[in-house]
Write a structure and sequence with these properties.
mainly alpha, 3 helices, 68% helix
């Protein structure tokens, strides 16, 4: 440490400057440097904590935005699956209910339309067996053995 009055170097445990007699304490240059270092360190740590808090806040906001975009997409996908399953169910029921030639022709027409529409679709609402049954029904023009 150094004396704040004359700049003389002080011993570590000195209470007064040996050169000018000024009391050693918060007024020393060295103490001021030490205080400044402590304050700077505290401020730097506070900034780090503040930035970390802001980073977490930003991540939370991004997560909320992403989830708010995903939920409607998931609901839409679920609705699409349900609609596709209903359509398959309607066609399968119609294949079993059709008795007359006109009814069978109508079911074949609807089944062909469905097969064409879902040809390259990942979600058609039918199991592999159901799709094969509908294809066979169409191929045999409404007659299944």
């Amino acid at each position: 440490m150094f004396c704040s009055n004359c700049g003389n170097q002080l011993t570590d445990h000195a209470k007064f400057c040996e050169k000018c007699g000024t009391p050693v304490g918060s007024g020393s240059v060295q103490q001021a440097k030490e205080d400044a270092t402590i304050k700077t360190t505290f401020i730097d740590k506070s900034r780090v904590k503040s930035l970390a808090g802001k980073k977490q806040y930003i991540i939370a906001i991004i997560a909320v935005i992403v989830l708010s975009l995903m939920i409607p997409a998931a609901v839409k996908l679920n609705d699409t699956i349900l609609e596709a399953e209903d359509e398959v169910s309607t066609i399968l029921t119609a294949t079993h209910m059709a008795k007359t030639e006109d009814e069978k022709e109508e079911v074949v027409r609807k089944a062909k339309k469905w097969l064409k529409k879902t040809e390259h679709s990942l979600i058609d609402g039918a199991s592999k067996e159901q799709r094969e049954y509908i294809e066979e029904y169409v191929e045999n023009e409404g007659y299944i053995d």
